[in-house]
Amino acid sequence: MRNWTSGSAVLVGPPVLRALARSWRFTEVNPADGSRGPLGPPVRRVVQELYALWHQQLLMLTLRHRDQDTAVMISRSRDGDVASRIVERLGFRIVRGSSSRGGAVGLREMIEAAGEGHPLALTVDGPRGPARKCKPGAVLIATRADVPIIPTVAIPVRARALNSWDRFLLPAPGSKIFISYGEPIRIRTDGSAEDLAMWQRRVEAELERLVRVCEAAAGTSWPRMRDR
User: Fold this and answer.
1) Would you say 42 and 191 are in contact if contact means Cβ atoms under 8 Å apart?
2) Which residues are CB-neighbours of 224 under 8 A, at least 6 positions away?
3) Strand pairing category for 50-53 and 149-156
4) Cα 208–Cα 213–Cα 219 angle in degrees, nearest 5
5) How far is Cα 30 from Cα 81, in angstroms, rounded to an integer?
6) How far apart are CA 159 and CA 157, in angstroms?
7) What is the three-class DSSP state of 114?
8) What's the per-residue H, E or C state across 151-218?
9) Spatial distance between the Cα atoms of 109 and 131, rounded to a whole number of angstroms
10) What is the arithmetic mean of pLDDT over 17-22?
11) Whether the predicted pLDDT of 4 surpasses 50
12) How distant is the alpha carbon of residue 18 from its chain centre?
């Protein structure tokens, strides 16, 4: 039964998710002044980049950037097996690994993907939290691949927040979603633990600032995240 269910999810999931994404109304929020404008087709801002996002907003940003051949890291778990097959069918390049399993291999493959010309995306607090705390993976990848980090936030007007460690957001069909892309952060680090932690805090601070910008545009505020 599990195999049948997983196979059905892989078959049915991508077209259902694509239909859901087409129903959403995306609006871009200027990170500097909060002004709003229509969000055109996704484009690469630089040759390669690393989109940094909170796990809570993963669904919206995954569907927004479908069919971009972006490299994403998905955990080496049973659930990750199914997720990787679905996400691959949404037009992503899959790297298997996480901070808890296969992390070193995953980091190396992400760096290789950047060298091959793929944009990158990483949930910087995933896969298990604590929520809204940037782990070192994004900073390490950006440093070794020599790509900028683009803090990226999406806030829906209407959504259900799951009772999970990150309060994962499921926007309602037809919801308006506000997205903001921060200015590129170029990592320059000496590799020390203190310096890496400083850059992690900088990424965290910019993501939180963009959350506030998008929440103001959406006219809503989501509950603060809680630890697992």
Assistant:
1) no
2) none
3) parallel
4) 120
5) 36
6) 7
7) helix
8) EEEEEECCEEECCCCCCCEEECCCCEEEEEECCCECCCCCCCHHHHHHHHHHHHHHHHHHHHHHHHHH
9) 25
10) 97
11) no
12) 17
Token pair listed for 9: 């999810």
One-letter amino acid at 194 equals E
**Cα(188)–Cα(129) distance, integer angstroms:** 25
Four-residue CA torsion sign, 117, 119, 123, 127: negative
Contacts of 194 (CB under 8 A, 6+ apart): none
Question: pLDDT for 179-191, tens place per residue?
Answer: 999 999 999 888 8
Amino acid sitting at position 70: T
* Structural fold of domain 2-218: Glycerol-3-phosphate (1)-acyltransferase (3.40.1130)
The phi, psi pair for 177, rounded to 5°, reads -130, 130
Q: Where do the domains of the chain lie?
A: 2-218
Q: Contact, 180 vs 209, CB < 8 A?
A: no
Residues 196-224: tens digit of each pLDDT? 999 999 999 999 999 999 999 999 886 55
What 35-44 contacts at long range (C-beta under 8 Å, 24+ apart), as own/partner pairs, is 36/178, 36/217, 39/179, 42/68, 44/119
